[in-house]
Amino acid sequence: MTDEIVNDTNNIDRAVGGTVFERFFTGRSEANYVAPKTLFMTADYVNLTVFETDDGLVMVDCGTLETAPKVYEEIRKHTDLPLHTVIYTHGHLDHAFGLQPWLDAGEKPRIIAHENVVQRFKSYMRTGPLNSHINKVQFGIEAGLKWPETSGEFFWPDVTYRNQLSLRVGGERFELFHAKGETDDATWVWAAERSIVCTGDLWEEILPNCGNPQKVQRYPEGWADALEAIASVDAKLLLPGHGQPIEGNEQIRACCHNVAEALRAIVRQALDGLNSGKNHEEIMQSIQIPEQLKQFFYIDPLYDRPEFIARNVIRQYGGWWDGFSSHLLPAPMREQSAVITELAGGTEAMIEKAYQLADSNLPLACHLAEWAALAEPDNDKAQQCVIDIFNKRAEGEISLMGRGIFSHAVRQAEKALAAK
Fold it and tell me: Are residues 229 and 343 in the same domain?
């Protein structure tokens, strides 16, 4: 029997308040039948899909290392069919690292992924400490996740493909399509006989995570292409990597096309700015989501921001120099801050002005607080100013990316005070 699918993609009230944590981090790990012989499971915050076939289970994504035991236990409550095939929608830690309990139980699935997943895993082996640090900043966690660094910590694909791959399992056809979106190794899966599409992170129920100030290149145009392709298969049920399923052909098409339109608008504005000779700052100040799209909760900038996505467009098409000549080979920020603070009349004056601006121009207040602390890192008042000003900035920031970086400034200042 099919469980009821929560389909609230028209609920505009969801755009008011809330954070990405409140929307996705359920703390639950439960699987339900959302269609005949189709299990959909949310493991804390990431989703996976299991198709029951005559040859065994086809699993789309397998969750995290941490949630793997719960995933295995929950799926086994519903079916004892052998695990035949695992498909990675991409190589991120929350989608491709939860297979160990299945292997421990003697399962021998084949693993299928886009060929770039192999390169991603190799890159992770070279940059484990970097990625661990980035996640600490991004999610505001001190302990962080230990990033895999050795070959044995990965579940490597047995089969890879480049553009498209057609599988038959248990007499059923599963079509795999490559896309570039949040990653360059993305796969979306079309279970044609079931009219079900599994999108991985190509559908996130928020403005796509296509900017991310701390991570590698994202691909907004490829993401829009993928969403339009997903809309074209005329699926009756969309099962995403995060968030709730979407039911109904028209609803799926509308949602995918609206997000694609938002991404294309950001790309268009960024390229227009570059082509007209604007510097990066001017481009950032001009980026807007089209008014007709702002009403949809699934375009809320809860994780990423339009400005960050535009910066990725700039990075993709242009260089890193932002257009200000002094920034090409700049003086160290600490030296700049010392001179600016001196010209302002000293650290006390800089701190006082930062607090004065906190209500009227918070971004400028952040500059002043940071300059004061860089000019005199041993000044307790300067560090406290950073804590106060950046806490205020973080509290008012809707995107997780921005809030994580602002909160990191607070933690660094708190450490500086605690070290005395």
Answer: no
In a domain, 303, yes or no: no
State which residues of the chain have pLDDT below 70.
Answer: 1-18, 26-27, 143-145
Same domain, 50 and 138: yes
Query: What pLDDT sits at residue 143?
Result: 67
Question: Do 241 and 382 have their domain in common?
Answer: no
Residue 48 shares a structural domain with residue 194: yes
Question: 259 to each of 69, 181, 213, 221, how far by Cα in Å?
Answer: 34, 12, 20, 11
Q: What is the structure's pLDDT at 151?
A: 95
Q: Are 236 and 382 in the same domain?
A: no
What pLDDT sits at residue 420? 77
Question: What is the number of domains present in the chain?
Answer: 2
The tens digit of pLDDT for each residue in 81-92 reads 999 999 999 999
State pLDDT tens for residues 370-379.
999 999 999 9
Sequence-distant contacts of 99-103: CB under 8 A, at least 24 apart: 99/62, 99/68, 99/155, 100/65, 100/68, 100/155, 101/68, 101/69, 101/71, 101/72, 101/73, 102/62, 102/72, 103/155
Q: What CA–CA distance (Å, rounded) separates 177 from 31?
A: 25
3-state DSSP call for residue 237?
Answer: strand
Helix (H, G, I), strand (E, B) or coil at 191: strand
Query: In this structure, how many other beta carbons lie within 10 angstroms of the beta carbon of residue 1?
Result: 4
pLDDT of the residue at 18: 65
Q: Which of 171, 259, 276, 164 is nearest to 221 (CA)?
A: 259
DSSP code per residue over 156-183: --SEEESSEEEEEETTEEEEEEEE-SSS
160-191 exposure pattern, b = at least 16 Cβ within 10 A, e = fewer: bbeeebebebbebebebbbbbbbbbbbbbbbb
What pairing do the DSSP bridges indicate for beta strands 83-87 and 110-114? parallel
Q: What is the pLDDT of residue 14?
A: 39
- Amino acid, res. 389: I
Q: Is position 237 within any domain?
A: yes
Whole domain around residue 408: which residue ranges? 331-418
CB–CB of 240/205 below 8 Å? yes
Residues 114 and 245 occupy one common structural domain: yes
Model pTM score: 0.93
Amino acid 11: pLDDT: 37
Other beta carbons within 10 Å of 387: 20
Coil, strand or helix at 375: helix
